[in-house]
Amino acid sequence: MVRKDPDIRILDVTPDNVAETGIYCIKDKKSPGYKSKVEWFKARVNSGIKMKIAVDDSGRQVGFIEYMPAEIAWRPVKADNYYFIQCIGVFVKEAKEKGVGSYLLAQCKLKQSNIIKQVYVP
To answer: Per-residue pLDDT tens for 30-76?
Structure first.
């Protein structure tokens, strides 16, 4: 059973809000890796890559998930009609064991092009 903490909300990262929301896995916006990751994300978002960030009631980012259709995953997987989870994490101690990770996983089960995508976790 997926339990959502009432104080957690999920932000969809998009090319329009990535400058504001960030990309979670690289916090230092001055880092060369940050700029590269943002450019990578923007270049692939139309292919189906998704990033979602869990935010607590104070606005603090507490977890995230990054996933894409398995057909475009950079790792060699054969999993048509599945989502490939590239990265998931709940790093803030206060958010652990509150269902945040399960809720983020549930976000992968989205309807896209009338096909219910399954989730593949390597």
So the answer is: 888 888 888 888 988 888 888 999 998 888 888 899 988 888 888 88
Helix (H, G, I), strand (E, B) or coil at 100: helix
Which pLDDT belongs to residue 15? 92
Residue 115 bridge partners (DSSP): 112
Distance of CA 113 to the CA centre of its chain: 20
Residues 83, 87, 88, 92, Cα dihedral to 10°: -160
- Interval 47-59: pLDDT, tens: 888 899 999 888 8
Positive or negative: CA dihedral 83, 57, 34, 12: positive
pLDDT at 119: 57
Residue count (the chain): 122
Alpha-carbon distance of 61 to 53, in angstroms, equals: 7
Phi first, then psi: give them for residue 50, nearest 5 degrees.
-130, 145
Q: Please provide residue 95's backbone torsions phi and psi, each rounded to the nearest 5 degrees.
A: -95, -10
- Paired sense of beta strands 82-90 and 118-120, if any: parallel
